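=== How it folds ===
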Amino acid sequence: MQRVYTTEGVHPYDEVTWERRDVVMTNWRDGSVNFEQRGVEFPEFWSLNAVNIVTSKYFRGAVGSDKRENSLRQLIDRVVKTYVRNGVEHGYFATEADAEIFEHELTWMLMHQVFSFNSPVWFNVGTSSRQQVSACFILSVDDTMESILNWYKEEGLIFKGGSGAGLNLSRIRSSRELLSSGGTASGPVSFMRGADASAGTIKSGGATRRAAKMVVLDVDHPDIEEFIETKAKEEHKIRALRDAGFDMDLGGADSASVQYQNANNSVRVSDEFMRAVESDGKFGLRSRTDGSVIESVGARELFRKVAKAAWECADPGIQYDDTINDWHTSPETGRISASNPCSEYMHLDNSSCNLASLNLMKFLREDLTFDAELFEKTVEFVITAMDISISFADFPTEAIGDTTRKFRQLGIGYANLGALLMATGHAYDSDGGRALAAAITSLMTGTAYKRSAELAGAVGPYEGYARNADAHQRVMRKHAAANDLVRTYHKNDVAVHKLATKVWQEGLEIGARDGWRNAQASVLAPTGTIGLMMDCDTTGIEPDLALVKFKKLVGGGSMQIVNQTVPRALKALGYQQEQIEAVVEYIAEHGHVVDAPGLRPEHYEVFDCAMGQRSIAPMGHVRMMAAVQPFLSGAISKTVNMPESASVADVEEIYFEGWKLGLKALAIYRDNCKVGQPLSAGKGDKGESEKAVEKQIEYRPVRKRLPKKRPSQTVSFTVGGAEGYLHAGSYPDDGLGEIFVKLGKQGSTLAGVMDAFSMSISVGLQYGIPLEFYVSKFQNLRFEPAGMTDDPDVRMASSVLDYLFRRLALDYLPYEKRAQLGIFTIEERTAQVNGYDESGSSDDDGVDLDTLRSTVDSSAREARESEEDGDDDKRVGSSTELLELRLGKAADAPLCMTCGTKMRPSGSCYLCEGCGSTSGCS
């Protein structure tokens, strides 16, 4: 072992400045305290969010007790010392000095957020609990009732521990086949119903995240059509029940009646089937008992049904069976038939995978070049630690433990790719961006397998290697050959690719002689919670979510900031400091780069994000996945987002191109597909267009008319010498319902325009548009007549409309809403001047409200007010919610069950920026 980050004789902890912080995490919606621990110790450069996540998620011991961990040192020592002790015990280190170097290097990297193990390592290693280190599991089920019931049991135990599992149900005979007793079989879809109910019950029993599971069915199974349409039909049910008045929202009282919602579904397709789709041929559905063809169906029609269901509800995803098994290192032992819930881990049934991810931004030098040599050395340390963990790990079932110890599957990966590409001036959807991503991924996997071969020489290859040696070597050669096909464009990817080529050549030579220690080395996981722990801007292989993000403040409150990678990207593109500052200021105001001052249009693509004004095209995501897939042992956790306007044909194209480009798995999500749910209009002529056989349920506001007799008031006013009258009518139970404005002579153009304007506002109020919305839009409008008024509460007005809506706000809005709009009575302003009230200020005299607020000595309150944007319902708790305000529409993401914050996409799962909870298994 050689030192890379550390200095001999100096402990890593002594090189940083430590500080004590208080962690108090509240529910964003109601303000209740979810978690509190004061005086925790972290390095000064750790962000508030990372400190909160690690303290609440990973510190062990009862909160408030002396046994509770209170320092990052304790957490890292608990894990690292366990790894080192077991490394020594199992013969990994030649000398005690080697073990010390390993300990110091691992400690330094974890403390400086260079990489992180997956969550189960932090939960369990070094504690009195079972030493479970894996987050990803694959189960198996056979065509017997005993096996099916055992599936329920094993899945439940895995869910209980907060992990997820996947399995393939294709061995279960179809509902079109007979049982040995002569009756008809139930079929796999019926058994899915029981497993789904079990998962839902365990979820509601107190788990911190949902029961994550993947269910796979082969495309030649006779029940495949029922499987494809399972979740789409349930979405139809959700919509119908909601329309009937049932509470079908997330976690709603009546939502438990909906089935199949706790699993991701995927169809496993073969090359034979995809070629039949390509040629519009027939495809046989085969009996599970004897393999005979039960029915021949049109391949293209079946493929269309897969795409149609995914278009409607995002399920099923698709897995490409022949591609997966062509890259399988252990085919003599068994086929790969399923994946974990997030689709990145694919290997033998009854197995598990231990994950760890590197923070790619830690390898970007000041001159914006990628430090390939440092990356290589870091991967060597991390993969060594990951392999040691299998030597002492516990597993949820005996079968999973046996398979994992025999094949030692690992899943090293990375996060922050999107940030790295932007910082180096690469568009995510560009040849240069894909070349750099491919070179880095190739170097990572090549180094991992090279170190695996070196470990095999020291402590022996994995137990199943001898039987699978030829296949394993064949796959290694496939990886190396794919590396040779990478086309480079820039000094960064050229340097990385050159080193990757060298590493693959050396690894092949060592492996041919000594074998390999691990049947699998790399995957690309969602990196949800651990991504927050490492302060990553982007997760896994994902691009940036948006250019403006939400950030919590240490003193409380929050603010929005422009991504820190933007200035580095502009520098990489050759812009000067003054230009960079102007562009950043523009992004802060507008949320995008279109028409930013001084930014050349050809550089816009560098700042394209997953969502927002310029979002990356769906095929751009697919092309990036295809660029890195040949350099991964497993697959990629990623969902390809598609716009709401995408058609079923677009989904078909994505799924078909995924097969052509050599992906192992693919899932899509069409915006709002679970909000405005399209329904089938029934069986029509096959020649009809898609629009002819689909209809959209539309939700319209209902007009609440005023009663014949209603309370009202009339106000006479003068603005800049022009006289007029404002008549306002209210609902008997409170609330403004109509206005009439008399201004100008009867029959004049001005009088006619004001009558039409009054009717328009009145109808809008009766349809439910809040008065505060109108006030925020019309106050401060400037046009003649303007000037002094005869109203003591509104002394100056910039126009008649400015006066009218300030007067209406004073008469009909509560103080809290007026305070946010900066509208106060003369008594309230007097109280503020005299120091009696700190709730707000008035800008009636032309005073800029934001400037006045900035004098208040409370940075937290200032940041919070900047997010509220004039509406107390628009409080921002995450980057997703900030993006909703920017785009003016709701994002398709669930609320966190722990803290109430809206989650953000992370791979094929969701991540809570507030508390670190994830909806997946990693």
